[in-house]
Amino acid sequence: MNRSKQKIKLLSSFVFRTIFKCGALFCWMFSSLSFATEYQVDSTHSTIGFEIGHMMISKVRGNFRDFEVKFDFDSKNPEKSTVSALIKTQSVNTESQKRDAHLTGDDFFAVKKHPTMMFVSTKITHSEGKHYKMTGDFTLLGVKKPVTFDVEFLGEMNDPWGGHRAGFLAKAKINRKDFGMVWNQEIDKKGLLVGEEVDITVNAETLEVAHKEDSSSLKK
Q1: DSSP E strand boundaries for 55-158
Q2: 159/92 Cα distance (integer angstroms)
Q3: Is residue 96's pLDDT more than 50?
């Protein structure tokens, strides 16, 4: 009888230790997990801009006024984040109505046939510090090609309206001819009117989706 009680006690002790270890392991695994949170870009405090050569002696800058960017951001593991952007090409703005009219026509963005351009991330890798490489599919004029952005994570904080925000700076360079945007004009028998390489700069102030409506008063 004593042996049976001793066996039961030993078995109970073993089961208890096993359950305790499993529970501790589960807690450790759960606490080490990180989860992505959905954010949207606050367009009032963000810009999608570009810069292109003009007459081989200067640069023209512009931006797009109508865009929507969504992404799932994991601050503990940014490599697991995902980004998608939709930009209305009709909203191109270079502070010149005549030039903008040309840009929206068939020589450039052909907005009637291609009203939007898109970017969807496929891979994000860590470079150093708060710097990352973000590669994705960029679609312009119906042509889809991979483009890589250099991204800097500028930080995150709570705003005065109960929302949570994060900031990013992203830069990339593309050749417009790769997407079928080939119009140009020869000048002075020495060069071309419009450059081929385009520098893209994105300044993004993002807002956690759960607090989007609560922080609407910030859009001033």
Answers
A1: 58-64, 67-73, 82-88, 92-93, 116-128, 131-140, 143-158
A2: 30
A3: yes
Domain ranges of the chain: 1-32, 34-218
Query: What are the tens digits of pLDDT across the range 147-182?
Result: 999 999 999 999 999 999 999 999 999 999 999 999
Query: How much is the pLDDT for 18?
Result: 46
CATH number for domain 34-218, candidates 3.40.50.2000, 2.40.30.200, 2.40.128.110, 3.30.930.10: 2.40.128.110
CA 88 to chain centre: 16
Q: Whole-prediction pTM value?
A: 0.79
H or E stretch at 4: helix 2-32
* H or E stretch at 200: strand 194-208
Which helix or strand (DSSP H or E) is residue 196 part of? strand 194-208
Alpha-helical (H) ranges within 85-220 are: 97-104
In the 3-class helix/strand/coil scheme, how is 40-57 assigned residue by residue?
EECHHHCEEEEEEEECCC
Task: Identify the helix (H) or strand (E) that includes residue 30.
Answer: helix 2-32
CA distances from 172 to 9, 132, 193, 202, 211 (A): 67, 12, 22, 9, 30
